[in-house]
Amino acid sequence: MAATQSLDADLVVADSGTLRWYEPAVGIYYGFCGRCGSTLFWRAAGAGRTSIAAGTIDPPTGLTTTTAWYTDQASDYHRLDPSLDQHALE
What are the domain boundaries of the chain? Predict the structure, then answer.
């Protein structure tokens, strides 16, 4: 289902002409690049914020990982950082 969304006032996309929105469930929106298909943003209706996929931000980001989720499903090649809070799928 196609969706029409506007960006938050303090969020600027350099080439917003390629930004597309997808609503897979009522009130859940994903913003993605219309050229390559990469997911850029997501938001829930009424949440008051847009979440940005960390991989879309140019470095240096200043971001750090604080928590690891679904650690019980990590593959054998994935090394979990023992200093992070870890949460299994429950």
Answer: 2-87
